[in-house]
Specification:
Blueprint (H helix, E strand, L loop, with lengths): L12 E4 L6 H16 L5 E6 L5 H14 L3 E7 L2 H11 L3 E4 L8 E8 L3 E2 L2 H14 L11 E3 L3 H11 L8 E6 L5 H9 L4 E6 L21 H10 L3 E5 L6 E4 L5 E2 L1 H15 L4 E5 L5 H8 L3 E5 L3 H11 L3 E3 L5 E3 L5 E2 L1 H13 L5 H6 L5 E2 L3 E4 L3 H13 L5 E3 L4 E4 L5 E6 L5 E8 L2 H15 L7
Parallel strand pairs: 2-3, 2-4, 3-7, 8-9, 8-10, 13-14, 13-15
Antiparallel strand pairs: 1-5, 4-5, 5-6, 10-11, 11-12, 15-16, 16-17, 18-23, 19-23, 20-21, 21-22, 22-23
């Protein structure tokens, strides 16, 4: 029997090509996905892939599995993940995107969705797919499906431009670091003909990532972008991850703009279109986000970390927008799916419709100092979490909740969240406080407990 326990994650399928993922395994996964979505009366699946060397072959194997179960395939070829979501939404078809996002070149993976870009996670289909493959995919006696090709890039770009109008922007010079990922494929189409000069960096599609990892949340990977913004006197810089569903922003000084700040800025723009709307934010975003949403007449709703939770809550509440600390941004007008490109367009529209530099514009949405994510390797996640809870829970004016890991709100307004990793023996710490000194002091206090060498308080 096959064992997929090492590659079926909470939100997607991901593993090392040739060791954990190969054509045979992926063919079976395709067949199992076809069986899953037949219950939704689906008759076709749309498939896209990124620029990794292994992606076209794995996508083709997946298509073989789907068609072997009698369903048709619409192949859109090279695509960003949000381009695949666009295809799933606009064609109303379930979809599969072959990418390992920002992971190194040896990895690949599959992000799956139902029709309308509805997420497929561990509890909404991935578990069933794993069980079907491990138990053996039943053969289908009917006729095989067929594969057709369709280019949706121009339609994707046109749709985004209906959601954010940049045609009236003042002229802007924007450096874009695609990290040799799919941003190099989508950015030229999206910004073609607009009053925005794109200064491209690493637009060549290369799944070996020869310049730097395609993970813009790691400060080391935006150094080139920061330098180029300052060198050419750009108005801003954008950095996309490998599959271009996340976008990170730097201002005209080359300084990073926190994703929480982007969340607040975009939320205000969306609330201007729909006053009183609901905005989703995960529990690690800055507390400035719910404050600003409330001040602008919106309703903030707090969720766990992760796209399946965000999308589920958006569907339940009718939310117009959602943002995460990891630079994932979700839009009701984009089938509640995440698209870094649309968030970037909102930022550029806000910048281009007034005369201030981006640093001044975003200052209004940045209120507190944050630590960023601090990871600690621990032997016993549960024991360390309990030790931190015991240490802080009894303090006067302190509030504790366990929606996702442990969140502690302190009497002075500072807070921290400590979450276990789902895949590694790590605890992830995020802190926010009034200033950098307060963040550092609180980090020292929490980490002293988390990293206690003897495993005791």
């Amino acid at each position: 029997m096959a064992d997929l326990s090492g590659i079926v994650k909470a939100y997607d399928i991901r593993g090392v090509v040739g060791e954990q993922l190969d054509a045979d395994v992926v063919r079976d996964i395709g067949a199992a996905f076809a069986l899953l979505i037949k219950s939704d009366t689906a008759s076709s699946v749309v498939i896209g892939h990124d620029m990794r060397d292994s992606s076209p072959g794995l996508a083709a194997a997946f298509a073989e599995g789907v068609t072997a179960q009698g369903l048709d395939v619409v192949s859109i070829g090279l695509a960003s993940t949000d381009q695949l979501y666009f295809a799933s939404g606009s064609l109303n078809l379930p979809g599969a995107m072959f990418t390992a996002s920002h992971n190194p070149a040896k990895y690949n993976g599959i992000k799956l969705c139902r029709a309308g870009a509805a997420p497929v996670g561990q509890d909404s289909g991935l578990g069933e797919i794993r069980d079907t493959v491990e138990q053996g995919v039943p053969e289908f006696a009917g006729a095989r499906g067929i594969v057709t090709e369709r280019d949706v890039l121009a339609d994707y770009a046109a749709h985004l431009r209906t959601l954010v109008d940049l045609s009236g922007s003042r002229p802007l010079k924007i450096v874009v670091d695609a990290g040799n990922g799919m941003g190099g494929h989508t950015v030229p189409s999206v910004f073609d003909g607009l009053p925005i000069e794109i200064v491209p960096m690493y637009f060549e599609l290369d799944g070996s990532f020869p310049n730097h990892e395609a993970n813009p949340l790691d400060p080391a990977n935006i150094v080139d972008l920061q330098a180029k913004v300052r060198e050419v006197g750009a108005d801003a810089g954008l950095a996309f991850d490998g599959d271009a569903d996340r976008c990170f922003v730097v201002d005209e000084r080359g300084e990073p703009v926190p994703p929480s700040t982007i969340t607040a800025l975009v939320a205000v723009r969306e609330l201007a279109k729909e006053p009183g709307g609901t905005i989703i934010h995960n529990l690690i975003t800055s507390k400035a986000v719910p404050e600003i949403v409330t001040e602008h007449g919106g309703k903030p709703v707090r969720t766990r970390v992760g796209h399946s939770f965000i999308k589920q809550e958006m569907a339940a509440t009718g939310a117009i927008f959602g943002g995460e600390h990891s630079a994932h941004y979700y839009f009701r007008d984009f089938w509640r799916a995440d698209t870094g490109m649309l968030a970037a367009m909102h930022v550029l529209a806000a910048l281009g419709e007034q005369d201030q530099p981006l640093s001044a514009l975003t200052a209004d949405y940045t209120r507190y100092a944050a630590s960023g994510e601090i990871n600690s390797t621990v032997d016993d996640q549960a024991a360390r979490l309990l030790a931190v809870k015991d240490a802080f829970g009894s303090r006067a004016g302190t509030a504790v909740d366990e929606l996702d890991g442990l969140t502690v709100q302190l009497a002075d307004g500072s807070w921290f969240n400590l979450r276990p990793s789902n895949t590694e023996p790590l605890l992830r710490l995020n802190i926010e406080a009034a200033d950098a000194a307060a963040v550092s002091a609180l980090a020292d206090e929490v980490l002293a407990i988390v990293r206690a060498s003897d495993g005791k308080d």
